Structures are given as structure tokens and as C-alpha cells.
């Protein structure tokens, strides 16, 4: 019995050798040298065009929960064409991500705000040079429970009243936000202080980054905020637009009135359209990835992944997960920052409130 199995194995091996020899002979007149291509320049549109570079290695990424869905989608698609590359994407919040990044623990950091001065200093002291790359637009959605039937819109001033540090321990009822609202307890939910969404919201609404009352339910996991607001008729919370679009029906998004007729009259609700046309203010913002310069230069898999991320042909992945892709000209400028290895930030003041990417890149 064993002899017969051995014979069958030998026959299969001989047939395979014949086929391989024939194919080699047929292709001997064609150029198949891919080594001339610089590292990382395999097709960035995905592995769909049949050109697959033999990359391997690990790309550690961490940071913003807001940017996470985009990076995760890019990583899954990229790994489909490069199965020997392992891309890990964690969530520590923007601030937590920068701590890991500047400690040398990650190659890429997801960020829903620009890097702060203290973080820049930490990276400088550790010898970490970085390339700042805007990858999409997002909006912060202000949400309530579907059971809340008395509010559909809030002004910036009303939001500031509810979230101001001076409101801690004093403002605890919806009728303190607006006298016409019912006598209903107000319970607040939002990101923790390591979140770039927290930084942006406090900057845009309260007028001072990081200034917020502390007596609210805080989490770096947006799903915790969704669940809290959804089950609380008196709840009010905020998180990124993509998470709202994933959870429509569980929570209700409010329109925001910034009082500026130039941004549209009255209450503007968060949506892809209002982010694109600039009317959802002041809660629309650019979001970023930060790439370690040495990782791009020393790890071909990192270069290839970032090129994939910045390829305009992949902007559909941005829209798929509920974000707004940057335009063609901004894609070109962002790719130029990568190709030129332009280190540092275009936002030395640290804020993107009221700043247009086209004016600073």
C-alpha cells in the first residue's frame, strides 16, 4: 500500500516539474523584473491590478478612535494584497497614541487633531521625526436619545453653557440649558481627556482647548458613549460623525446653530454634505495620520501602506466608513508631503478650528 502511494506521489512530482519547466520556457522572452521598482511602489489602489510586491513585517498603529475606522479599513484592504504584512490598529485616543508614538512603540499614529507642543517636544527629545498627513474630514455629532422629543437643535452658546467648567455641580437640568425645555435631569457623555475629539470640541465650543466640566461619563470608546446616550432620556453626548451614522436609530443627532449666516441660516445637522460644503460649523474638522520618518525610510511595508492610504483611488474606503474624503488637490499636496519627507506640523498653534487645509498645506 505504501509503495503504491509513493509511486503516485512520484508521478505527481514529475508532472509538476514538467508544467513548471514548460511555463518557464513560455515566459522566457518576457520581462518580469520587478526589482527595478523602488520599495513600496507596488500598486496602491489595492492588490486588484495583479501587481503584488513581496512585502512582510509588522506595522504597529495606535491613537484616535475617530480615525480608527478609516485606518482599519485601509489595513484590511492592504493586507488582502500583502498577506505577509501584519497591520495592528489600536485605540488609545489621540493623546494616548502620541505617547506611544513618541516612545517609539508605533510607526503610525492616528490623530483627530494636530500634534500639541508638549507632544512635539516629547518626540523631539526621543529623536522621533514625523510626517503629518491629513487623510479625511470628520464632524463631531452632538446626540441625544431618540426618546428625547423636546430638542432638535442647540446653539453653540447653549452647548458651551452645558459643558463649561463653571457648570460643574451647578447645571444639572435641561431647563437650565433653555428655559423652554422640561424639568428633566441632564446627564452628559463624551470622550476622555486623551481624545482629540475632546480637545477639538472644547476648543470649538467652550473656546479653550481642554476646558470642560469633569462630572460627565467619559470614555475613549465611542461605543460606550453611544450606549450611554441611547439608554438615557436625559442624556447628551458627542462623538465623531462616522459613529453616529453607524448608530442612526439608537441615537438622534442634533442640528447646531453657530449664529453665522455665512455658514447657513439656523440649525445645520451633521452629514457628509454639510461637512463638504462647509456649513456644519464649528464642528467639522480635518483628521490625520502621523508617520514616523525612519519607519517610512527603513521599512518598505510602511512606505507601501502609507502610499496605499493616500491613493485617491482608495477614497471610497473613506466614504464607506462614514467620513468625507479630501479633494484631488489636497491628495496631491498630502502625497507631496510624504514623498518630500516633510517633517513637522502645518499647525504650530495646535488648533484647526476655522482653519482651511488649502491655506496651510
Automatic annotation (TrEMBL):
Residues 34-48 have a biased composition (Low complexity). One of its GO terms (molecular function) is phosphate ion binding. GO terms for biological process: phosphate ion transport. This is Phosphate-binding protein. PANTHER family: PERIPLASMIC PHOSPHATE BINDING COMPONENT OF PHOSPHATE ABC TRANSPORTER (PTHR30570), PHOSPHATE-BINDING PROTEIN PSTS (PTHR30570:SF1). Belongs to the PstS family. Involved in the system for phosphate transport across the cytoplasmic membrane. InterPro entries: PBP_domain, Phos-bd, Phosphate_ABC_transporter. Residues 54-311 form the PBP domain. NCBIfam families: ptsS_2. The keyword Phosphoprotein does not apply. Residues 28-49 are annotated as: Disordered.
Amino acid at each position: 500500500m505504501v509503495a503504491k502511494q509513493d509511486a503516485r506521489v512520484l508521478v505527481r512530482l514529475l508532472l509538476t516539474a514538467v508544467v513548471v519547466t514548460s511555463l518557464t520556457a513560455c515566459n522566457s522572452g518576457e520581462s518580469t523584473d520587478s526589482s527595478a521598482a523602488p520599495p513600496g511602489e507596488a500598486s496602491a489602489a489595492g492588490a486588484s491590478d495583479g501587481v503584488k510586491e513581496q512585502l512582510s513585517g509588522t506595522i504597529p498603529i495606535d491613537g484616535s478612535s475617530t480615525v480608527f475606522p478609516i485606518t482599519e479599513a485601509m489595513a484590511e484592504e492592504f493586507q488582502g494584497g500583502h498577506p505577509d504584512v501584519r497591520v495592528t490598529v489600536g485605540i488609545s485616543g489621540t493623546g494616548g497614541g502620541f505617547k506611544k508614538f513618541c516612545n517609539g512603540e508605533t510607526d503610525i499614529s492616528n490623530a483627530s487633531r494636530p500634534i500639541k507642543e508638549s507632544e512635539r517636544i516629547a518626540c523631539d527629545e526621543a529623536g522621533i521625526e514625523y510626517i503629518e498627513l491629513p487623510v479625511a474630514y470628520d464632524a463631531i455629532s452632538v446626540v441625544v436619545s431618540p426618546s428625547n422629543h423636546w430638542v432638535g437643535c442647540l446653539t453653540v452658546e447653549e452647548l458651551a453653557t452645558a459643558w463649561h467648567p463653571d457648570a460643574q455641580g451647578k447645571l444639572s437640568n435641561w431647563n437650565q440649558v433653555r428655559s423652554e425645555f422640561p424639568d428633566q435631569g441632564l446627564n452628559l457623555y463624551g470622550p476622555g481627556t486623551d481624545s482629540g475629539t475632546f480637545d477639538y470640541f472644547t476648543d470649538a465650543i467652550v473656546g479653550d482647548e481642554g476646558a470642560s466640566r469633569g462630572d460627565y461619563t467619559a470614555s475613549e470608546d465611542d461605543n460606550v458613549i453611544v450606549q450611554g446616550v441611547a439608554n438615557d432620556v436625559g442624556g447628551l453626548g458627542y462623538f465623531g460623525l462616522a459613529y453616529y451614522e453607524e448608530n442612526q436609530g439608537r441615537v438622534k443627532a442634533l442640528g447646531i446653530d453657530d449664529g453665522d449666516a455665512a455658514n447657513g441660516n439656523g440649525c445645520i445637522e451633521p452629514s457628509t454634505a454639510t461637512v463638504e460644503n462647509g456649513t456644519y460649523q464649528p464642528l467639522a474638522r480635518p483628521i490625520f495620520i502621523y508617520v514616523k520618518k525612519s519607519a517610512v525610510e527603513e521599512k518598505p511595508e510602511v512606505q507601501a501602506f502609507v502610499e496605499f492610504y493616500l491613493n485617491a483611488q482608495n477614497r471610497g474606503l473613506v466614504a464607506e466608513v462614514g467620513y468625507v474624503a479630501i479633494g484631488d488637490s489636497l491628495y496631491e499636496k498630502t502625497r507631496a508631503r510624504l514623498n518630500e519627507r516633510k517633517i513637522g506640523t502645518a499647525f504650530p498653534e495646535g488648533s484647526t478650528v476655522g482653519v482651511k487645509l488649502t491655506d496651510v498645506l
